[in-house]
């Protein structure tokens, strides 16, 4: 294994390109259970007809856990959207179509999104009344079992030379309500500073899925609170604002 070319560095993990493989090496204190859970997520989505990188190996590199998967050559949809602004509507439409296709599938071995959100609300740092309100609201919303990505944004879509769309980075995958997944994507556009894209995304998702915009926005405060657990300092003020919105206005 030649770990010479670094393609990304994240908190407590480094991602290398090794020929036709991607090697994600975790930090020395990274829990083995989290490594195996992430690998299981990828193995589960590999069993669907979706185009996803194939899980190749879970191993250790210099005493640190690593996950190895197939390298998908191409450009991210984010790169394409950034360079081809004239076709923003077309590219956003494709982005939403890919997400809706993903939501058609169910993988019952993935964690339940509702349970994950309840745990994060409990640890989000808001006061007890706010946590109770958010937890009660979450319990009242429908619990589906659709495949949810948890970090679905244009940077996690690879478009190959054959114009095939691969979905990558399944570390946050769960089974749950598709509108919660959409609320997460909406927030990701906001957090990246692309507010116009956030609005355009929400319009297209709701129109194509025949979902009321207010229903997706019911999830926004819950998702925002859950994101507070590991939020960057610059994101906290924004997330606190959304987490404290009781109902969409």
TrEMBL record:
Pfam families xref list: APH (PF01636)
GO MF: transferase activity
Aminoglycoside phosphotransferase domain mapped to chain residues: 19-188
This protein's UniProt keywords: Transferase
Keyword 4Fe-4S among record annotations: no
SUPFAM superfamilies for the chain: Protein kinase-like (PK-like)
InterPro entries for this protein: AGP_Transferase (IPR051678), Aminoglycoside_PTrfase (IPR002575), Kinase-like_dom_sf (IPR011009)
PANTHER family: AMINOGLYCOSIDE PHOSPHOTRANSFERASE-RELATED-RELATED
Name of the protein described by the UniProt record: Aminoglycoside phosphotransferase
Species per Swiss-Prot/TrEMBL record: Leadbettera azotonutricia (strain ATCC BAA-888 / DSM 13862 / ZAS-9) (Treponema azotonutricium)
